[in-house]
């Protein structure tokens, strides 16, 4: 009976450690996305407001970069949702 309890505690500890690692990994990914977004926005912040908005909306490179950021955030959101369900 005591061995079963030890095994159960070990399994719970391993599961907890695994979830902590997943959350840590996800946190780093979010931090990378925020850094990338900040860099993208800072590149454009030197222009006047209307030029800034025009370039953001019309520059296909920025649109693609922003789309990639959105996709990465959606993937992380799904991963966090799955972690909370487990």
Largest sheet: none
Our count of domains comes out at 1
**N-to-C series of helices and strands:** HHH
What value does the Rg take, in angstroms?
A: 21 Å
What is the overall silhouette? rod-shaped
Unreliable residue stretches: none
Structural class: mainly alpha
Please characterize this protein's 3D structure.
The protein is mostly helical. The protein contains three helices and no strands. The mean pLDDT is 77. It has one domain (23-85). It has helices spanning 2-44, 49-58, 60-85. The protein starts with a helix and ends with a helix.
Offer a few descriptive terms.
86 residues; mainly alpha; 3 helices
What topology emerges from the helices and strands here?
Blueprint: H1 2-44, H2 49-58, H3 60-85
Helix pairs in contact: 1-3
In short:
The chain is mainly alpha-helical and 86 residues long. It has three helices and no strands. It has one domain.
């Amino acid at each position: 009976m005591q061995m079963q309890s030890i095994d159960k505690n070990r399994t719970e500890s391993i599961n907890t450690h695994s979830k902590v690692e997943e959350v840590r990994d996800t946190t780093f990914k979010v931090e990378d996305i925020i850094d990338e977004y900040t860099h993208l926005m800072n590149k454009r912040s030197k222009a006047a407001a209307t030029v800034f908005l025009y370039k953001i909306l019309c520059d296909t490179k920025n649109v693609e970069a922003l789309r990639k950021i959105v996709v990465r955030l959606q993937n992380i959101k799904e991963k966090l949702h799955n972690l909370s369900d487990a």
